[in-house]
Amino acid sequence: MSVLKTTVMGAALTISISTNVMASDSNKDFDYVVDRFADVEVLRYKVPGFEELSPDRKKLIYYLTEAAISGRDILWDQNNKYNLQLRSLLEDIYANYKGDRMADKEFKAFVKYLKQVWFGNGIHHHYSMDKFVPEFSREFFDAQVKALPDDRKPENIDVLTRVIFDPAFMAKKVNQAEGQDLIATSATNLYDGVTQKEVEDYYAALKDTTDMTPVSYGLNTRVTKEGGKVVEQTYKVGGLYSKAIERIVDNLRKAALYAENDTQRSVINKLIEYYTTGDLKAFDDYSILWVGDTGSRVDFINGFIESYDDPLGMTGNWESIVNFKNLDASHRTEVISGNAQWFECNSPVDPRFRKEEVKGVTAKVITAAILAGDAYPSTPIGINLPNANWIRAAHGSKSVTIENITQAYDEASHGNGFNEEFVPDTAMRELMDKYLFITDNLHTDLHECLGHASGRLLPGVDPDALKAHGSTLEEARADLFALYYLADPKLIELGLIDSPEAYKAQYYKYILNGLMTQLMRIEPGKDVEEAHMRNRKLISEWALEKGAPEKVIEYYTIDGKTYLRINDYERLRQLFGQLLGEIQRIKSEGDYEAGRDMVEAYAVKVDPKLHREIIDRYSHLDIAPYRGFVNPRYTPVYNADNTEIIDVNISYDEDYIGQMQRYSKEYSSLSK
Ligand code: ZN
After folding, report:
1. What sign does the CA torsion over 215, 287, 12, 173 have?
2. Centroid of ligand 1 to alpha carbon of 306 (angstroms)
3. From the centroid of its chain, how far is CA 444?
4. How far is it, in rounded angstroms, from Cα 500 to Cα 439?
5. Is the bond leading into 311 cis (omega within 30 degrees of zero)?
6. Distance 363 CA to ligand 1 centre (A)
7. How far apart, in whole angstroms, are the C-alpha atoms of residue 410 and residue 615?
């Protein structure tokens, strides 16, 4: 799994829970929430730092964003062969509608459907893969089609009508159920007129299993039959999707003129070569160059990348993300990594289990400038590419977190009622408002850059000794390292935080989540299974129990609702340190029994009564399970005689419908 998607239900909710409030004083003038329909909330994100970039970097980004949006129709067509026609038809009906837009229930249901189709980049839900169900009537639809000008009436209206109204027709975008022909039962357009067996035989014959550096077979092709023979139609200039790819290439050429350095220019040129030839070897060469480009401020992904939507896992969905390095946030991770040895030497674990020489990992933090294709409107918050295993092993990978996207999630969660429901103490709510965003980021940095990298095994200890409990205990170790140091004056000394109180916001939220709010993601009657959830529960339950004599953490109730109070933060920090020492011992000695007992005692079992209460309280909050984004808009500023771009302006005023309509109008290279 190379992309961390957050629009999946669980993860979207994690974000709501983990960082539900934050500093918002500076953002009162910025509306993060753009639209809300069905199970979706659409947000917008800021691109802080864009204005301060040099004109050349802005131009580079501008052309890369144009290259990004230019590929939009490719993904629509990959998702289903009727998507582009259907989108045109729906948009025509929307524009042509003559009735009362505010009052007509049928029209409103139609708009909801259109918004869903836009969000899914087609007729299927981006996550569940199920086809959207229209809530407007067949009569309404027929009348609207009839009212269209003759030249806008599709010839195959019967098929398109069936696509909308027949639930059994093209029901599932991707079918993964064993025992069926996955190609025949999937509605994607990656295969046409071939059976699963034919495709499997075709690739089996093509693949050289002794090749240690294989290309990603099928990544950029649709498989079909010509004259009874299985063939691949390649996505390339002069091949399938040529019109869209030509436009991508044209913008990449312009972008290459403003490349920051020769390395970056060679990355762009190699990508152009790949799009022009369709040669997968060129794509591997491009990926290797891309991984090696760590010095440029601006970076981008553009291509056929993730293959989750291919029932056979081969063809990449088209996507693009353009971004630039967030220097402040990356400075934060550099400071932390640069002081890794100090943290290691002062950690509350037995010196025998400490690393003598520790090297922190530096994570790059980026700012997204545009999201496109498979990354739009639903988008990842982290990226780790390339996907080819042999390239990762030989050349490494780039791992980034997209902080302006996580920031938008955080900001938008403000005021969703979560805190009012679960944090009754207004002083704590204010502290969370002020410090949760920065302490969340610091927690992540400490966890990733130091926590996982710290400690060592005693000689001869099997790294897999903790078996099934290994990942829960490893996550607990990293979290405890982060929690322990969040309260350390060293962070103030390093200039990473300005208040000795800030950590309390993180402690409170962490315990609240571990003991209570994360339970809403578990189905009634089930245990906690997922490693990160188990780890949070383990830490929180252990601290609750060990601190019980001094009432470090306590439950209380108001009107039958359960709440939490932390009475002694310093003592809680000591408990975190103590547990870190014990879990490090378990890991260093490979003490399987102690690890298993700890996980079983604290991390798994759910109190059914509290569980029911949390689910019930959460259900009363109006929190959308899925979220996505509209992009900012980039407008070039030309010189006096209109021959050259001298600057690029960014604006955030577009709404969801407006952006979708504009993209369809200006970037429809494949639709009719
Ligand atoms: Zn981790």
Report:
1. negative
2. 23
3. 16
4. 12
5. no
6. 13
7. 21
Joined tokens for residue 524: 């009634």
Between strands 561-566 and 553-558, the pairing is antiparallel
From ligand 1's centre to the CA of 448, what distance in Å? 6
Distance CA 614, CA 518 (A): 9
Which residue in this structure is represented by tokens 């003759």? 150
Q: Are strands 33-37 and 40-44 parallel, antiparallel or unpaired?
A: antiparallel
What is the distance in A from the centroid of ligand 1 to the CA of 472?
9
pLDDT of residue 672: 59
Q: What does the alpha-carbon distance between residue 573 and residue 500 come to, in Å, rounded to a whole number? A: 13
How remote is the CA of residue 447 from the centroid of ligand 1, in Å? Answer: 6
Chain-centre distance of CA 535, in angstroms? 22
Cis amide prior to 386 (ω within 30 degrees): yes
Q: How many of the other CB atoms lie within 10 Å of CB of 207?
A: 12
Helix intervals (H) in 175-229? 196-206
Q: How far is the CA of 441 from the centre of ligand 1 (A)?
A: 13
Find tokens 């030309």 and name the residue.
Answer: 638
Q: Are 469 and 495 in contact (CB under 8 A)?
A: no
Residues, the chain, total?
672
What distance in angstroms lies between residue 449's CA and the mean position of ligand 1's atoms? 10
Dihedral Cα 648, 651, 657, 661, nearest 10 deg: -20
C-alpha distances out from residue 630 to 107, 114, 524, 569, Å: 23, 16, 35, 41
Q: How far is the CA of 535 from the centre of ligand 1 (A)?
A: 10
Kind plus residue range of the DSSP H or E element containing 402: strand 398-402
Per-residue pLDDT tens over the stretch 267-315: 999 999 999 999 999 999 999 999 999 899 999 999 999 998 999 989 9
Spacing, Cα 445 to ligand 1 middle (Å): 10
pLDDT (tens digit per residue) in 360-417: 776 789 999 999 999 999 998 878 789 888 898 788 778 788 999 989 988 888 778 8
Which runs of E-coded beta strand occur in 235-313? 298-306
